[in-house]
UniProtKB/TrEMBL annotation:
InterPro entries from the UniProt entry: 6-hairpin_glycosidase_sf, 6hp_glycosidase-like_sf, GDE_N_bis, MGH1-like_GH
Swiss-Prot/TrEMBL GO biological process terms: carbohydrate metabolic process
Stretches assigned to the Putative glycogen debranching enzyme N-terminal domain: 20-199
Species of the source: Planobispora siamensis
Mannosylglycerate hydrolase MGH1-like glycoside hydrolase domain boundaries: 433-586
Protein name stated in the entry: Amylo-alpha-1,6-glucosidase
């Protein structure tokens, strides 16, 4: 195993695991609040496990868990009770652990004595750290580091690993008696009274300690994550609907996306980008962050702006086979882990993604369509052209991928597991591979660039990019179409053979508009067939294929973000009923999962099991799964702004009694109401024409 190749999935966290997230920090613990060594539990920051053990004992006995109360994404309260006091049959000591995660950890531990007699208790906290890199933990191959030292000090414990440049300081108030690995408090808890200790875990990065974001020295509501969350809720559009499931799912989506935002300390005025998901992907990704930002545009356009700007700053500028960096290329992911032999690329960007670069251009074009941040077009246009230069250097006419070394990802599209691209008989496709959906992204990127040229009066540029789009569209429909099957190949392999596996990839092609209109009906028929559609969503791979496994990562599972794009593609080509079925199937799944759609779930048919079956190692919360319901609502609204041309299409289908206020279009605050009497829109800028009809699939290509 190395940094980027990992041919299995991480171990499951367990049904009772609790995950708290804030920005690039997260905590995974047991249901009672303890962090137990030996697995994936821990407190993580900067891709490093700062704590691998955090176990509370009262009078040398574990606390019995009672309940977890989830408050904010970064905050939970763990209720428990200690063992019965001497001569008592039942416990009279409630233990409350209020935990806040962000830039480390803060935990307020309260012992509440429910008896008429004062209690003397010995409270111990067992603390340990392996300073493991996130990749080590994910793979279950943590390398023991003998250099980790735990040094008591006057207020707690300092844990450092000099060879890894990482550490943590545990601070307690009141101060404990400390020996390496154990903090001890002698607590006198008054009758019907309380005793409280506040603990804070401050990360140490490259020898410099920084306070946890929820500092014990300031009110909790003044902490930066709390202020940001309040602003996020205040500024987000408000959705009112009689559909209880939809309301709950959208509320959860908003909360999850808010918790996954990434802010840069050295750029406090910069809008945030977004992390891919907890627990393993709490960092900026190219593909994931771009698609999430696209789908979240109705909620917040600043995510797209922040993601585009940050990816632009990290855009490839040199050739490096080890990281697969190339001039103009948009990264796959960036990591900040400990300096270990197991992670040779720690604190580096990796560029092994074939689709991040065209998606970067696509998102720029979509942000322009919403009429927001117009100055960003001029600011980022050199990066758009650098991205297109990389695409045109690599595409002839199709964009292929092949890893540069044996340390890179074998598959570099969104189905990036080692077995994610296969023929109908189950044989794995061999690189170089041109994926169907990637050609659609390239087509849409060319279209976007032609519009940019049009808006500045560059007629030659407009024609050049429109011509490129037409050429790849024609070649795609000729080379990828399988007339005897009635669907598009998943890709082309290195020998030019069509990878004839029937998968969800072609739904993305509908979304981008590269599909010939006379082929769309057949594509939709396959996507919505019993082999593909489970009742909850479209499978990644049809049940009739040789590699089908509904419990696999990419060969028969259901991914919400994939389905959101498939539904958008169906709607684009006029297949509204299919889009509606996908949408409400996913909403039913979300209800079963407690309102939060996971990264993926198993692809069993709804007729076989009455509830969707979880995928054990699915990330949750996960960014593009959280954004999927927002995209689905936009799809059913058939909402398509085109601000540069003063046009908006809106023609709802499958939605009733829905009101969205605070929506930003073309710099104005818009309210959309869908009621029994039809649809109304208030607040559109003067001069904008509203079309109460769906947009033609080819409108973007023709204008």
């Amino acid at each position: 195993m190395n940094s980027w190749t990992f041919e299995s999935q991480p171990g499951a966290l367990g049904d009772n695991a609790v995950t708290l997230v804030e920005g690039g920090s997260f905590c995974v613990c047991a249901g009672g609040g303890d962090i137990v060594p030996g697995g994936a539990q821990g407190v993580y920051h900067a891709d490093t496990r700062l704590l691998s053990r955090w176990e509370l004992r009262v009078d040398d006995a574990p606390v019995e868990p009672l309940r977890v109360i989830a408050a904010e994404p970064y905050h939970a309260t763990f209720l428990g009770r200690s063992a019965p006091r001497p001569d008592q049959a039942e416990s009279t000591m409630l233990v409350i652990r209020d935990r806040y995660v962000g830039g480390g950890l803060r935990e307020d531990v309260t012992l509440r004595n429910l008896s008429e007699e004062a209690a003397g208790c010995v409270v111990t906290l067992h603390v340990a750290s392996d300073m493991a890199d996130l990749f080590e933990v994910k793979a279950g191959r943590v390398h023991h580091v003998s250099a980790v030292e735990a040094t008591p000090d006057s207020s707690g414990l300092r844990v450092t690993a000099a060879g890894r440049g990482r550490g943590a300081r545990v601070v307690a108030d009141p101060a404990p008696a400390t020996v390496p690995g154990v903090l001890t408090f002698r607590a006198l808890v008054p009758a019907r009274g309380e005793w409280v200790v506040t603990l804070q875990v401050n990360p140490i990065l490259e020898g410099e300690e920084s306070p946890a974001w929820f500092s014990a020295h300031h009110p909790l509501e003044h902490a930066e994550p709390a202020r940001r969350r309040a602003d996020w809720e205040r500024l987000s559009p408000v959705v009112t609907t009689s559909n209880r499931v939809l309301a709950q799912v959208l509320r959860q989506s908003r909360e999850d996306l808010g918790s996954l935002r990434l802010f840069e300390d050295d750029k406090p005025d910069e809008p945030p980008s977004i992390a891919a998901g907890a627990p393993w992907f709490m960092t900026l990704f190219g593909r994931d962050s771009l698609l999430t930002s696209w789908m979240a545009l109705p909620l917040d356009q600043s995510l797209a702006l922040g993601t585009l700007r940050r990816l632009a700053r990290l855009q490839g500028g040199a050739d490096d086979p080890l990281t697969e960096e190339e001039p103009g290329k948009i990264l796959h992911e960036i990591r900040y882990g400990a300096h270990t032999g197991a992670s040779p690329f720690a604190s580096q960007a990796y560029y092994g993604s074939v689709d991040s670069t065209p998606l970067f251009v696509m998102l720029m074009g979509e942000l322009r369509r919403w009429g927001l941040h117009s100055s960003t077009v001029e600011e980022l246009m050199p990066h758009v052209d650098a991205a297109l230069d990389w695409i045109t250097r690599s595409a002839d006419p199709f964009l292929f991928y092949r890893r540069k070394t044996d340390q890179g990802l074998i598959n570099q599209g969104w189905k990036d597991s080692f077995d994610g691209v296969n023929f109908a008989d189950g044989t794995l496709a061999r690189a170089p591979i041109a994926l169907a959906e990637v050609q659609g992204y390239v087509y849409a990127a060319y279209i976007a660039r032609s519009h940019f040229a049009s808006e500045v009066g560059d007629r030659a540029g407009e024609e050049r990019w429109a011509s490129r789009a037409a050429r790849i569209r024609e070649a795609f429909n000729e080379r990828f179409w399988l007339p005897d099957r009635g669907y598009y190949a998943m890709g082309l392999d290195g020998g030019g053979r069509a990878v004839d596996g029937l998968g969800s990839n072609m739904g993305h092609c509908l979304w981008t508009g590269i599909v010939d209109e006379d082929k769309a009906a057949s594509v939709v028929e396959h996507l919505m067939s019993p082999a593909m559609f489970t009742g909850y969503g479209v499978r990644t791979l049809a049940s009739t294929m040789g590699a089908y496994n509904p419990m696999s990562y990419h060969n028969g599972s259901v991914w919400p973000h994939d389905n959101a794009l498939v539904a958008a593609g169906l709607m684009r080509y006029g297949f509204a009923e299919g889009a509606r079925r996908i949408t409400f199937g996913l909403l039913d799944a979300a209800e079963a999962f407690g309102w939060r759609l996971p990264e993926l779930f198993c692809g069993f048919d709804r007729s076989e099991f009455s509830v969707p079956v979880p995928y054990p190692t699915s990330c949750s919360p996960q960014a593009w799964a959280a954004a999927a319901p927002i995209q689905l609502v936009r799809t059913l609204l058939r909402l398509d702004p085109w601000a540069p041309h003063d046009q908006v299409w809106l023609d709802p289908v499958g939605l009733k009694n829905l009101r969205i206020s605070g929506l930003q279009i073309a710099g104005s605050v818009v309210t959309i109401t869908v009621g029994d009497e039809g649809v109304s829109v208030a607040g559109l800028p003067e001069g904008v024409t509203l079309f109460n009809q769906p947009r033609s699939p080819m409108t973007a290509a023709l204008r």
